[in-house]
Amino acid sequence: MLLKRLVNIALTAVAFSAFSLTAQAAQAKAALESARERMKTIAQDKTSLENKQAAMRKLQRELLDFAYVSEQTLGENWAKLSPKQKKDFAAALEQLVEASYLGKMRDADTADIEFGEEQTTAEGTEVHATATAQGSEIHLVFKLKAKPQGGWLVTDVVIDDVSLVRNYKAQFQKTLAKASIAELQAKLQKKATELKNTPNTTATNELKTKQL
After folding, report:
1. I need a surface site. Which of 102, 194, 196, 199 has the fewest CB within 10 A?
2. Predicted local distance difference test score (pLDDT) of residue 27
3. What is the pLDDT of residue 91?
């Protein structure tokens, strides 16, 4: 239950970061702060939920580096894939993440995330933040890297010391001990379809990676 809650917070946090990470001149923290406000504006807009989801879907693809995340989660298995297989697996992961958080758009305007210290590390840039959920404070670390053409890409979100990428990797490696990458990909696609076809409730619209 705790893991599901943390993943839920991570997906909402990633959704917040999907809106203003395109100005290279802006520092990562400032971009995330602007993203938070713009995300709330989108969530409160009177347009249809479908329109909001379409906007989120487009911006998600501009922000999240699914090829990088896929490589990190598959580990040494990534090198064994052909370019087409890599593209297909990254697309399946994108579908799962998309299905997991787009249904939560109605609740996005109620989330409270405060951004704090920004640090430069050997791997890129980290922005520390605190999220308030159900009366409790949760510590987050956004990991970002600068895009060559300008802007930023989110490569991981760490919630109370739990890395979203590492969590995916642990679940994927467990599955791959008994199944092929093609079978894992099929499971991701099946789970994405189930989430898209499930009513938007806290219990049913969570990312259930441990059931893969």
Report:
1. 199
2. 77
3. 93
What pTM does this model have?
Answer: 0.71
Give the DSSP letter string of the chain: -HHHHHHHHHHHHHHHTTSS---TTS-HHHHHHHHHHHHHHHHH-SS-HHHHHHHHHHHHHHHB-HHHHHHHHHGGGGGGS-HHHHHHHHHHHHHHHHHHHGGGGGGGGG-EEEEEEEEEETTEEEEEEEEEETTEEEEEEEEEEE-TTSSEEEEEEEETTEEHHHHHHHHHHHHHTTS-HHHHHHHHHHHHHHHHTS---TTTSS--GGG-
Cα–Cα distance, 42 to 36 (Å, whole number): 10
All domains of the chain, ordered by start, with CATH?
Answer: 2-204 (3.10.450.710)
Q: How far apart are CA 168 and CA 11, in angstroms?
A: 13
pLDDT at 14: 54
Mean pLDDT by runs of 10 across the 212 residues of the chain is 48 48 59 73 76 69 79 93 95 84 52 82 88 79 81 82 90 94 95 77 39 54
Nearest to 16 by CA among 115, 147, 151, 136: 115
Cα distance between residue 112 and residue 33, in whole Å: 11
